[in-house]
Amino acid sequence: MASYNTHQREPLLDRQVQAALQKRGREALGLGLIVLAGMVAMMLWTYTPSDPGLFASSDQGVQNALGRTGATIAAPLMVIIGVASWGLVLFAAGWGLRLVTGRGHGQAMARGVFLPIALAVTALWAATLVPSAGWDTLHGMGGVFGDTVLGALVNALPMSPAAGVTLMGFALSVICLATWAFVMGVDWAETRQFLRFLGAGMALVVSGTGAVARGGLSGMGSAALSGLSGGIRGAQAARAAAAQHMQDRRARAQVAGPARAGHGYAPPPAAQGYAPAPETQGYAPAPAPAPAPAPAPARKAPPVIRASGYDMRQDTGYAQPARAPRAEPRLTHAPGPARAAPMPEPEPEPAPGLLARLKVLSSRPAPPPEPEPEPDLHPELIE
């Protein structure tokens, strides 16, 4: 029995070199995807509906950053799925970063096949949003696909269109987030790590806000206590000043009392630091003036008794004083018409009673008089 000796060929590159080449190739592919994501982002960011392409023809220059090619590719994407086109940028950048870092890159093909579903769900969710000021008015932010499918779903719901759009927006936001997490290759370990990071960040924000609030309250409390203590000290100082003022007034009243009693001037005591001037050493208070004598009562003349028929004007010694003629007042302006006396206001007639009103309402108006026949102005001629 013949036997054949088979010699296995040794590989051209050993395993370490093969692993290194695979790693470098994966990194290069990842960098290529990141660059592609940047180019797509520039193409979508500089998209203008008026650029010449499949849906528009214009003589103006192309404004897209990638030229006519970019305008031709961006136009159908923005018209069909709207802002969901940015999902291509997210997908390329995310998986490019995974390939560069070497984390979870083995599921790229298995998860990437669900990219069209993620784009469709994103277009539906974008259709529920209000278009921005610079958005094309021909369709919503979800493109033609998002507007068409969302309109069909809202019409099928047993509620008003506004409530249906609100409900669909909330539900589609949750579905869109879960779909993109699956497409981007997120596993449970990364989900737990993300939730842990989110919880730590929220706790840090809450603790920082509490510390700021406590610091503000403590500052307000210290300011209030300092203000209260300052007010108490001010009140005590005002009370002491008032007491000193009252003491000064009482001392001045005691010094001025003897001087007021003697109707003269009394210098203050020397204990207060008062010293009379040299020229006033011989000063003496002036004596009080003597009271004036009371006038003597006037004596009454005795009554004169005359006869009953006596007339003073017949007395030769009596002369009646001449009276000055009375001057007549002069009018400085023309006399106006005499004012008529005000007419007395007529007394209001008493309001008729209820029976009188009923009688008037029940009485029928008199029939109008029949017109008299007019005389014939054209009599017949009798032959």
Task: Give an overview in words.
- With 383 residues, the chain is an all-alpha fold.
- Helix content is 52%, strand content 0%.
- The protein is built from 9 helices and no strands.
- It has helices spanning 15-45, 67-80, 86-101, 108-112, 115-127, 143-156, 161-183, 188-261, 354-362.
- Residues 268-283 have low confidence and may be disordered.
Summarize this, please?
By secondary structure, the protein is an all-alpha fold.
* Quaternary structure classification: single chain
**Biggest beta sheet attributes:** none
The percent range for helix content is 40-55%
The total beta strand count reads 0
Rg calculated over all Cα atoms: 61 Å
- Contiguous low-pLDDT stretches (5 residues minimum) are 268-283
Give the overall shape, derived from the CA principal axes: flat
Number of helices: 9
Distance between the termini: 179 Å
Structural class: mainly alpha
Mean pLDDT: 75
Beta content comes to: under 5%
Order of helices and strands: HHHHHHHHH
Task: Give the secondary structure arrangement, pairings included.
Elements: H1 15-45, H2 67-80, H3 86-101, H4 108-112, H5 115-127, H6 143-156, H7 161-183, H8 188-261, H9 354-362
